[in-house]
Amino acid sequence: MAHRALRIITAAVLAGGVLTACTTEPATTGTTGGTGKGSSDGKLVLGFAQVGAESGWRTANTKSVRDAAEKAGIELKFSDAQQKQENQIKAIRTFIQQKVDVIAFSPVVESGWDTVLKEAKNAGIPVILTDRAVDSQDTSLYRTFLGSDFVKEGQEAGKWLVKEYGGTSAPVNIVELQGTTGSAPANDRKAGFAEAIKGDPKFKVVASQTGDFTRAKGKEVMQAFLKSHEDIDVLYAHNDDMALGAIQAIEEAGKKPGTDIKVISVDGIKDAFVAMKEKKINVVVECNPLLGDQLMELAKKVAAGEDVPRRVETKEGVFTQDQAAAALPGRQY
Ligand code: GZL
């Protein structure tokens, strides 16, 4: 489970909308940056090392960050790590060389960050964690964490299942598509879900494997699950993209997703709401990617040496099929 330095939720906020995208240079180019200290135009310079572009959630998160930087007048140096930790580490080192004012990133996995974060600290560059957490014991390596409580998301998924099967005693066989191995959302969503269902022996996770948060892998792993398990009652997917890939596999196997196999998912992208409307997904636990505006506010504060909360969590909901149609038009991602 992701190490939580402090669980003080000092601001439950709902991130705002998005504006036009700003121009961004790849992290490997550009001059030194700063808040007027020698940066080309006096703008605050933020280096952002993104996980990749693996899911609809990630695409929305990237757009939110880019649009918010534009709106805030912040020069953004953006890097896409293609889900590889070594690329994120390289990007952070480049940002250090470029003397950016602030570094922000979503750690693709929880471990292995202390060395590069110490380099940032020694260079006097504050770091903000967004979306995913690290398990570093040294909490001085980053100023704040902005994102969701993934354990709570897993618990919400489990609570829905307990309610859905309340009063029954027949076995309920569950297959689980985990997110990226070693990532905070995968570790915590798994732990939260297991915690929520552990009190009732009818619930059995008969298979659990990573689908790496992508549709393609989600479909592939679900195909394998269907081949090796005749009697699957429930799919718990750690994100919508894997759930949507799995739904294709379920239908190709001649079964009805949402009916023969109930589908629980996390994120809340538009396609998942459409699938809920089509009765193919039963419940979606929301995970808000629209963190851009809050990230820019935090970046300005840390650059100015102001105090910031150690943890800023986003407000999120749980949506069931009967709410999908009404909620769909208002979905921002
Ligand atoms: C969660 C985020 C996860 C999403 C996936 O905050 O890190 O990564 O749930 C995304 O869709 O790929």
From TrEMBL:
Protein origin, superkingdom: Bacteria
Main location, first listed in the record: other
Cellular compartments annotated: Cell envelope
Protein keywords: Signal
Signal peptide start-end: 1-20
Alphabetical list of InterPro entries matching this protein: Peripla_BP_I (IPR028082), SBP_2_dom (IPR025997)
Domain Periplasmic binding protein: 52-306
Classification via PROSITE patterns: PROKAR_LIPOPROTEIN
GO cellular component, one term: cell envelope
GO molecular function annotation: carbohydrate binding
A Pfam family hit: Peripla_BP_4
Family: Belongs to the bacterial solute-binding protein 2 family.
Listed PANTHER family: D-ALLOSE-BINDING PERIPLASMIC PROTEIN-RELATED (PTHR46847), GALACTOFURANOSE-BINDING PROTEIN YTFQ (PTHR46847:SF3)
Protein name (record): LacI family transcriptional regulator
